Structures are given as C-alpha cells and as structure tokens.
Automatic annotation (TrEMBL):
Pfam families: Pyr_redox_3 (PF13738). Probable flavoprotein which may function in endoplasmic reticulum associated degradation (ERAD). May bind non-native proteins in the endoplasmic reticulum and target them to the ubiquitination machinery for subsequent degradation. GO terms for molecular function: flavin adenine dinucleotide binding; monooxygenase activity. Belongs to the FOXRED2 family. One of its GO terms (cellular component) is endoplasmic reticulum lumen. GO terms for biological process: ERAD pathway. The gene is Foxred2. Keywords: Endoplasmic reticulum, FAD, Flavoprotein, Glycoprotein, Oxidoreductase, Signal. Its cofactor is FAD. This is FAD-dependent oxidoreductase domain-containing protein 2. Interacts with SEL1L. May interact with OS9 and DNAJC10. Interacts with TXNDC16. The keyword Signal applies.
Amino acid sequence: ALLTLALCTASSNSVLYHDYCIIGAGPSGLQVAYFLQQAGRDYVVFERSHAPGSFFALYPRHRKLISINKQYTGKSNSEFNLRHDWNSLLSHDRRLLFRHYSRDFFPDADTMVHYLEDFASLLKLRIQYNTAIIHVTLEKDEQAWNGHYFILTDQDRQNYKCSSLLIATGTWVPNVVNFPGSEYVEGYETVSTNPEDFAGQTVLILGRGNSAFETAENILGVTNFIHMVSRSRVRLSWATHYVGDLRAINNGLLDTYQLKSLDGLLEGDLEDLAIIKDKKGKLHITLRFYLENSNTSAGIDSITLPQDELDNFATRAPYDRVIRCLGWKFDFSIYNRSLKMMPEKGNKKKYPQIKPNYESRGTRGLFVLGTASHSVDFRKSAGGFIHGFRYTTRAVHRLLENRHHGVPWPSTVYPITQLTNSIIKRVNEASGLYQMFGVLADIILLRENATAFEYLEEYPIGVLAELETQTGRKAPNGLFVVIMEYGRNFSGADKDVFYYNRAVGEAQHAWQSNFLHPVIYYYKHLPTEHEMRLRSPDWPLPRPHAIHHIVEDFLTDWTAPNAHILPLRRFLENCLSTDLRHFFAESCFLFAFTRQKLPPSCQHGYMNMQGLVGSEVLRRHAVEAGLLEDHALTDFSDDRPPDNQEESQDQLLRHHMIPVLPLQHLVNTKDE
C-alpha cells in the first residue's frame, strides 16, 4: 500500500493511454505486437533493455540454442516447413525466416538476438526501450472494456493507462533453494563459461534440466568428476515427447555416468541438504538434520557428516564448486494485489494462474503470453517455446479481436464435398496443429443439413465450450474437432519408446497409434463447460459421439488413399449419413432416376450444370482408364471453328459427346 501511495504521489507527469500495453519485447511480445499492428490497433511495447530479446543476450550461458533450425525438408510448402523451424516468428515478410540468419541446426543465441532486432525494426513495431515497468495496478471504471483500466508505472514514475494488458516477460527470475550453506553455491546466471576455470576440479551441480546438463557438457572434459543431484529422475525428451526435457545435444553426462567414467546422477530433496566449507575451501555435503544436532560454532570437526555413520555415502568426497541450475520463475513482484496474480500450484508454481484462453484467473483483460503462459500445457506440448507460443499468441489476438472489436475468428465456408480434402490438407501441412498438439485444434462447424461447413483453424480446445462467445461463430448443427495426439501410454520418463513393434501400420489398428497422428472428434452439439470439467485427465476433450484416428505414418504424410483417406471419408460419411464420394456425370444421371436423394457431389455439380465440355483427349483418357465404353466417335480434329454460338451447339449435337466430367475429377480413375 505504501509503495502504491508513493508511486501515485511521486508522479507529476500526465498519464499516457493505449488500448493495449505489452510488457516485454521478447519473442512473444514482438509476436503479439506484429498481430496488433497488422490489425491497426493502438498498442505499445515496454522493454526494460535497450534492445529486444534481452533474455537471449545472456541465456543460454554457453550460447547454443536447443531449438532446431532445419534448412531442408524436401518440400517447398512454407506452412509445412514451419513444423521444422523452431525459431522463426510469424509474419508476412519472407525475409524474417530464421533460416536466412543461420544454417546451424542448433543456432547460436547471438543469432537469435540479431533476428529479434531485425524483426522489430523491419516491421516497425512500436517499442519503448529502456522502460522498466516497476508497478501495475487497477483503476475501476465502468466505461472501460473490462470494467477497469490497467495503470503501469515505469522507473521514471511515468504512468500509462491501458484497456488490456498483455504480459510477455517470460520467466527470468532464477529459482533459488535456501538451505544451510547455500551461500557457497554459484548460480547458472553468473558461473564462468570458460572450461579452463574448472580444470582439475570436482563439481556438484544442483538441477536436472537442460541448463544443468548444458553446464556439465561444457566442463565434462576438464573436471575430476561431476555429480548432479535433483529431487526427480532424469526425463529424456525423446521418451516424454516434451521438448523442455533433457535433449540429446546436452546428455553427454549420461554416457559418462552409465559407462562408469566417474560422473554420476543422484536423487534427493535439495531442501534437505546442507553444505559445510572446511579450512581448505572444500565443500562437504551433509544433511540438514545432522547440522541441526551439531554445534556449528565449533567448526567442521564437530559436525557429524553422513559418512561418519555410512562409510560409503555417495557424496562423501568434498567438492571444489557447487553450481545451481534450477531454471527460472515468473516475476510476481511488480503486480499490485488488486490484480490477483497468483502462482499456479504444484510443479507449475513458477507460472501465474491463467485460464485455457491465456487470460488471468484473477483479472479480466490481463493475458499472459509466451513462456510464462506454459502452465496451460506444461510437460504436454510446446507452449513454452517459440515454435509453440507463436501460435497461441496468434490465438489470443484472435480472441481479443472478437471480444473488443467485433471481428469474428477467421473462417472459410466450403461445400460438404470438400470436407475430406480440407482435413487431409490441414493435417499434412498445418504447423500450429503439429507443434501445439493436444492444445490447439481445427474446428469444423456444420451447416444445416450438412450441406456445407465452416472451417476455423487452431482454436484453443480448453475453451471449446465457449466457442460461440469467444469466436463470434455459431455451432447449432454439430462439429468436428481435428487435433494431433501421441498414443495414450507411449510418452513418459519411464517409457521405452524404442521397443520392437512400436509402430502401427494398418488402418484398422489406428486407435493404437503411438506416434503423433491426427484424431478427429465428432460432436452432435457443442460440449458444455460441465462436460469439459468432467473429462478424463488424459483426454484433451470430453467423450465424443464418434472418434476417428488416422493411422500414424513413418513419413508424417497422411495421403495414402487406402490407409488414410478412405477410412477418414467413411468415418465422415457415417457421422453425416451422406455419401461424400465424387461421381462422374454418367453416375449422377443414373442416380437422378433411381434415388430419392442425390449425393452432394451430384447436387453441387451435375445438377447445377457444372462440369467440363468433352474433347477427344478427355474421351481417350476416360476410355483408357475404363471409365467409358469405347464408342466410335467422330474425330474433332478436322472440324472448323464454329461461326457462332448457335452453330457451335448444333455441331456438338451432331457429334457423339462423352458425358460432362466434373473438373476436379479428371484425374480420377474410378468411383471410390
């Protein structure tokens, strides 16, 4: 309260207003600024440093990113290629693809800094540098978008007023564990990166993540040995399918541990530890309860060490250095209590509490973006990393456009005959579905009588029950949800993901697919909030009326006619009680006399007199494909061009014509 009073009374400057205030010019801050600028909105980005991406100017300490930068995929489709580009932000400028900045598979962090600087300058984003926001509070006002304004104060006591606040600061406060002797511990943020400084030393590393293994990798060849201790077992990203777990590029210590080359891993609660420094400067590891029962003022000789009772205690050898590599947490300190910014619970406590639409649980109009929003999909998907949050940031922008400006979620309407093709195209190309598996989904809203559908891309499924209010689109006639998933029991720290017969190849066993594959949920009505709350913890969505798995594919290419497309089409037909096959005009002509209801392709094509006038080339192709009988037809090659339209029609009547073929099926060989 005193801080709030001091800030308010110290400021004699006028309050500057913007519709949207963004705190942080890191990747997520730049990404949302781009979308707001493209939409012509009033916004400003506050950055405490002199340049964007200041986090990457320091981290990772050893300067090698673990986000892949794949130069070649064998395909030219830009959307598909983003599946394997984990560093680029989304924009219309093709110059701002990361592959133009580095050819390294794991790029240097300095390259990322340069890239973010170019992204901000080339797109002319409105960023206010050297502006540290030190306090945020609320000002109630019924005329405001959300019933209140956000008041931000910078280091110069300048106040800013905003209708919507977007937090893109990431997690940058180091996690610190306090225990007796923790003052002897060096932090990852300050420890030397010169391997020669560790030559001939014995090192203990606290932590078990990528920063810990990155540090160990740097000094592996010069130390006596390295021990690593953490409360949890090592989690390998290839087993958990979570990119934030230990990556292979950093796991050299696992080799030296398992191949008995002195290094080792231990499990234990860090808060139970204690460190004692002897007269020679060596650091001894003991347990807190030994220290509590000893007279510490008498020196180390009077303190009982674990090896005094258990002579083969694992960490009985003293260490020269202890390094803390425990990651980072969100900075809650600048937010007034009125914003109700509370940490999540359990292993997500380093993140603020937010809803599945990335809005704060305590304050309407406050959205958390980027790494700090990772509580929505922690240890499940890629929302804490650039290749994930570039899509969730776009989703938040679309939600804001609908809420504050009446711009509905972008969608495209297609005839029902294009349903199979639309799904197949998206699951083979879409990068947002691929990267944010289990979190973002394509929504297909059916029109009345299933004659057409409306396609919405990459919607957060956590707020599926609120789709109509969040998007401005209606779903009265049922919907399909297209999502990407791994197998239910395939991922985990203790899973053997290389076991024999791990892959499924036959369509009838698609539901047992282990690797990432498309899953289509069908609902006759939009799921309710109650149904969403009652869904199984392992399921991204509540129980559907029908579900279809497209069988996993070794090439992640779901275009096989029999294994992928045909089972999908039959699933859709069963859900819609219609025939989604495409027919030639001959078949439509026959159906018109023999059926009460024509298939949609005949209704939209043949019955609307749509198709292609035949020619000798098409006739020969149809005959060779076995689609038409080989009737003797008059050669068109000697015909002179008709003088007028009437003569043209008479000429067509004189010749034996092949039936009209729908344009999209000239290359088909038969009715499926």
